[in-house]
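As agreed, record copied across for absentees:
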Amino acid sequence: MFSTRSWSKPCRSDNTNEQLAEVLDRLANTLNTNQTPAPNTNSRGTKARIPDTFSGTEPDKLNNFLFQCRLYFCTNPAQFDMDIAKINFAMTYLTGVAQDWFEVGLNQEDQGILQEWLSNWNLFVDELRRHFGLSDPVGKAANMLDNLRMKPGDKISTYNVDFMCYASQLGWGNSVLCHCYYQGLPNRIQDPIFTWEQGKPTSFQDMYALAMTIDHRYWERDHERHCARQVEKEALESHSQKQGKAPTSGSGTASQSKANQSLVASSANNPSSKPSPSSAPKKQPNTPRVDLSSKLASNGKLTSDERKKCLENNLCLYCGAGDHKLDSCPKKQTIVSPKGCSASATADTLAAASEKPSEK
């Protein structure tokens, strides 16, 4: 059953409400005559999309609204075999100022003024275009066609739809359309057309067909290049996996790490093998040991005589120098005593300490 909409307004008279209710009832009766299917499906079960609402504030959307209405009528021909059914259906999807205008026309019937567009679909469309369509549709279409350009990343089908939409509203000749169509094509299509063996087409149909062929070949070749790059990438990855290498820029680091692991494993399996001189760690030269038995006691500390000598001459008890004391000595190095005990001074500094008192 066809669902009616609320047409009521606070300022509307009772006669107007009754008149609108009568119109909607007539529409509902028309749709349900002979037990026809629901408005959204035809006898074959094809679903139809209901039109978008039209408020009249956006003139460039009127053509789309009328197209959706016609498409709905064609999907349900048994329900819309009369103009009054089409008009009543379309009016239910008008909103805003567009709805208000046609309400005024309905109200005039009470005054004896009959509107012909209430029973004639073509007149109803003309009424819509006159009040809510573009003021200069031909001029706008011509301007849009002059400035239409195909985007580099688009396929030609998108460009063709826009071109034919504007061209259908104009009465331009074949040669003019051919020129405008060529001007809107990108260089990747214009260049092959310009160098075509048969020459540049002079008719719109020939230009249209040639541009379609070139664009199809372009995208076919683009697909082939994409597939070739994918196969090459997969082959490189497969080869890298067989070689045990990562297919990235860090393959050098991975190879070096693998070589180091191989070297460690080889050394573990063959302990007798010696590393090359370049890889073997360098040994530090041996420091000569000095006999400190005359200066150190058996416990590794300075003898009483040596200690007394340092104290009398204000010498450091660690290095034997005279410019500082033990707590601030910059030289502290462990040396080996004759019996292997740890001592608290180097051989050179202790020798210097023993020589200074004798000089005095």
